[in-house]
Structure formats: structure tokens, C-alpha cells
Automatic annotation (TrEMBL):
It comes from the Bacteria. This is 4-alpha-glucanotransferase. The lineage of its organism: Bacteria, Pseudomonadati, Pseudomonadota, Gammaproteobacteria, Chromatiales. It comes from Rheinheimera aquimaris. The gene is malQ_1. It is an enzyme of class 2 (transferase). Belongs to the disproportionating enzyme family.
Amino acid sequence: MDAALLAELIAFCGIETEFNDAWGKPTRVSETQQLELLKAQGFDIEDDDTARLQLLARQLDFWQQPLQQVSVQRLGEPLQVSLQVALEQANTVIALQLTCEDGQHYTCNLTPVDGELTQVIVLDEVEYHQYLHELPWQLPAGYHQLAIAGSAQQQRLIITPGRCFQPEQFTRHKQWGIALQLYALRSERNWGIGDFTDLSHTLSYLASVGADFVGLNPIHALYPAMPESASPYSPSSRRWLNISYIDVEAMPGFANCSRTKALVEAPGFVSQLSEQRRKDYVDYSGVMQLKLPAMKSLYQWFSEQKSTTAKDINKAFKQFKLQGGDSLLQLALYDALHAHLYQQNSDYWGWPNWPEQYRDPASDAVMQFSKQHSAELDFYCYLQFIAQQQLAQAQQVAKNAGMLLGLYRDLAVGVSEASTEIWSNPQLYCRQASVGAPPDPLGPAGQNWGLPPMYPYQLYKQAYQPIIDLLHANMQHAGALRIDHVMALLRLWWVPKSAATAAGGAYVYYPIMDLLGILALESQRNQAVVIGEDLGTVPDGIRELLSDYGVYSYRVFFFETAADGGYISPQHYPQQAMATLTTHDLPTLIGFWHCDDLRLGKELGLYQDEAQLQQLYAERHANKQRILDSLHGHRIGGDSVLPHDYPRSSEHLGMDKTLNYALQRHLAATSSQLLCLQLEDALEMTQPVNVPGTSSEYPNWRRKLSQPLEQWSQREDIRQLFSDISRIRKD
């Protein structure tokens, strides 16, 4: 390809050709990789003339619109508008109409040439000018609409407060909480998977020992027809909830419906339920085989009821459907159609593999299915309604118990290719590429997550509505939101499907200032603290920018090392951060100390060669000694977190409860506003939740906690640990 054309295409698509890798080494994206990314975005890389025409069409799509699709501006700063016109229209008066979010209207007339000329471009022999004007209004934070009178041209005008929500109570003392995978909660009453009632009970217990929040894995909607597609980070829809977390026994009618009572009291059902409770790993198919028939029976009971209580529930359900709009209906339609097709043929794992007539949600075949199966669609809407109610009740339990934040939810970085989100909005996503990560310490070979990325320009064309919807939905019934891979606001590592490995990709940039502005606005509106998972390769200045917007950094103890290799004192962690010992992608404390993750990685073939593995063992050995040195060297209130006679050499030292709990108390002294610990570590568990870079090789997202809630919540050693942490956090 002509070098000048290639450079223009790369710039237009926001592809970064040079970057510093996770070890700080300058790295260049090869021309072959650049071309493959352009191909993934729809450009003909074999024919320069065709590629030029494709680029021209996309440029004209932007420049032939007098008003930009969306503009994000900061509260209190002068209000501005850019007008884009062909040269011959520069002296034409344009009548602007502003409609504020509260319904107020304003008008003014502008002549483009009277503004500041900011850009000139010639396309297809036509010269286009861009002029910047200052508008005479002051607007409150919110979503407003600017339009050109007498035309369809309009702009979404977003005014952002410029900083995310931070509770006033943060100024008084530091908060702490527990991170858990909801599915992993065992109890003597659940149906083989943790549910929203288990969550409520866990919140009540943790509030009693002084915790301020519980951090959840993503609870996004998955695939009821294919329960084994269970990764919370490869969802079907990030706007809706995973219905497997519904507590069936808490649904309306469970105590009254004789049909459901007969179903769940049948000997075969009771036997299967007992078996699911005994399993150490969640059997998603087995769980849904129990839950779905019971939930359908209770939906039928609800549909038949005429009582006052049922009428109140039905009124709330109708309001829920009205608010859910097309997004809710599309999810219900997808789930119903998926179940219908998958029962016929297991090859129909998702919409890309469905019969052609069903791949477009607006097709006649899909519309016909919707009409013929309206009751089933309503059933899936009802399950979302119940899930939202039970989640809201859990948050209310937390708030009533005195927790400051209650739940903090987790927003996954993307959706799977077979998702409802892509089926209903295919033009937004690039299906010829996947989101991932270049090689780094967590994934030495790079990572490919199998999640099609959003096109930045399509996101802009849709006035950022998909992002607004995602943030609003995930801040519901929560005091905080963790954004997985927050670097996605700036850039994502795109791996073309043609790439041999995840290393064969490149970074593609996104409009970070606009996205941060929207994040701040939704955070303030929903009063949700924002935590940005800023691990991996982070460009210079980005953490500072996120901090300016009030986003809390995510600091993992194992990664917080000084230049000499030693571990930074917790008292030196940034205040605007969440500190944690480990995460769902890392080994447990015991697993780390005993190198279980390295042995498992070797078994799974995650390392390039034996030399690399031996280097990791050597680094781990050194790190263990440095950790032990830190615990002996740093004091809390004048006291060491380890007994004075505890060994000072890590050689042949196993991880025991003394060392485990000392590590947790050690980090509790962090100066960071938020501290998050893993329940698995309090339970002294060894096996990890997830092994990055694997799929079927390891049972990711299935391992349950080692003890049921009824047991561990009665353990005095755990209660003492949590009480100690609460005391340290308040000192």
C-alpha cells in the first residue's frame, strides 16, 4: 500500500504504531499488523484506489454534517459549538435551537465565518471549513439537544461536572470491604449457586464486623440456553442481569403455588438439589435445569393471579418493561429465540451461527417468532424484573445495616461475539477483531479475550448512547462501580482474527475526554464511586488524568514495588485508590506463596519455555522474602503484624494462618481510601478463581467457596480478623 495512504488510514482509524510495552521497552507495530487491522475495519488493503474511496466516504460522512453528532463540555466553562460547512456556505446564517434536559428552549443565529477557523480540508474537490463559536448560554450538567432549525441536523450536547462522585464520609475515615464471586457463595439453602439472598445474608454479616462494601464479579446477563458459557467477562448483555442469581424461593408465589410446590418437593428434584449443593464447582447446566422449570411455574402463577398484591406487582412489572424499552425486549427475544434454536440444533450456539433469517433482529422471521412466542418473551422480561428487585433488596439490606457503599459492581470490558448487544447493534462492533492485551507479566504470550471491540467512530455516531446506557445500568443498586480494564477509555488492544497470536495486534484509540466526561456525569447522578482497574500497560499521564476526574486507582499489593524490588509501605499508597492483596485473575495468598499458579501454568502450557518458568520461580522466591521483610519491618500502632519470634527467612516457610492474616492486617494500614480483600484468603483457600489465557483447560468461574455461609460466618478467627481490619481502618 502507498505509504502516504497507509499513514492517512492509520491516523483516521486511531491506530497506534509505536508504544512502550509492559516492561517499558519501545515496540513498533509491523506494517503487516497495521494492514491487518485496517482490513478488520473494512478497508480493502489489496487495492489502493478502493481504499481511498472507502476513506473518502467515511470522511465525507463526518464533514458533510454541519453539527457534530455529540459534544461533551465541562460545567462552568464557556459553551461552544463547531460548525462544519463547505466554503460556499461559510456566510450562510444558521439558526440554532437548544432544548435543555429540563425542557427549556433557547435560540440564536450564527454565521459560520464569524467564528474561529479551526480546520480546513479538501475532499472530493470541495473545500470544507470548521468554525468554533461561543454560545451565549450557561447550562447545567446533563444531556441537552442542539439542532439546526428546519433540518434534521442535531447534536447531543453533554455537560459534565468533570469529576466523579465521592461521598462526604470519605473525609472522616477509610473504608474496606470484601470481593467475592457471587456464584461461589455456598449455603445450606441455595440451589447450587450463590444467589441474591445469599448476598443479602453476606452483607448483613460483613456490616456487623464493620465492612463498608461487598465487591461483586460482573453480574451481567449470560446465556440461559447455554448455561456453561459462564464467564462473567464474556456476557450477552452488560445492561441486564444474570438470572441464575435469582433466589427462586424468594419469588412471588413460591409459598402459595401448589404446582411449584409439587415440582420442588418431588423426590427426584430434592435429590438433584442436594447433589448440586454438595458440588465443589458450580454445575451451571444442572442449576438451570432446576431453576428454569420452577421459575416458569412461578411466572405462570403470577400471570394467573388477580389479587391486590399481584396487581401491585403487575403494575411495577409494566413500569419496569416501559423503562427497559427496546433493550429489554431485545434481550428477551434473544433468550427465547436462542433457546428455541439451540434445542433444535446444538450448533446454533449464538446468532452468528443461526439460520440466516434469524441473524437480523428486524427480519420478518424474527418478528414472526416474537409474535408467536410473546408469552415466553414476557417470561424472560419477568425474570429480569425479579433479578432487579432482588438485587435492589440486597443493596437496601446493606444500607439498612449501615454500610456506606453497600454493593460495588463490576463492568466488563466487552461482550462475546454471540451476544445480544452485538446482535441488536451490529454496526457498533468490529467482529473481525478481538479485544485483548499485549504480552505482560500476567500474560507472557499476550491475551485474546474473544470480545469484539466497539468502533470508536460508530460510538461517536450513536452519540455515545451505548456507553451512557451501560454506565447508568451498572450504577443501579450500587454504591460504587469498578470498570474492568479502565484503559479502554483511552485505548484497546485490537487483535485481528487473522493474527497468529495475541501479540499480533495494536492499540486503537478512543475519545477519552468525552468518555471520562460521561463517566463523571453518570457517577454524580447515580452517586456511585468509580474505581478504574488500571493494571497492565498504562501510558504516562493517564493515571493522573483519571485521578483528576475522581476515578479511584486499583493498587494490587504484589505489583506495588519500589526501584530496589522491595514492597512499598501500605502507608505510601495513593489516597485516591482501592488497595487489594490479590484479584480474581491472580492466585490466592496461599497459592502465590506455594507457587501453585506457576505449577498450574506449566501444566496448562502457559509459558514459552522452561527458562522462562525458572526465571518466574526465582523472582517468586525473592518476592516472598521481600514480603516477609516488609511484614517484619512495618508496624501498625507501634506493633508488628507478625509475632517477634516468627521466622524471618522465607526459605522452607509455608503459608500458615499467622502469615496469611498478617498480610491482610498489613495492607489494612494502607493510606488508600478503599481496601478490598478476598473472602477466599480469609478461608485459606488455594485454588484460583480464573487462570488468564485459558478457557476449557481450567474450570474458570466455577470454583465455590470451601465452606458454606452458615459455617464461616460463625468462625471466631474470621470475625476477629475482620474486626481487626475495621479497627485499623478507623485508626
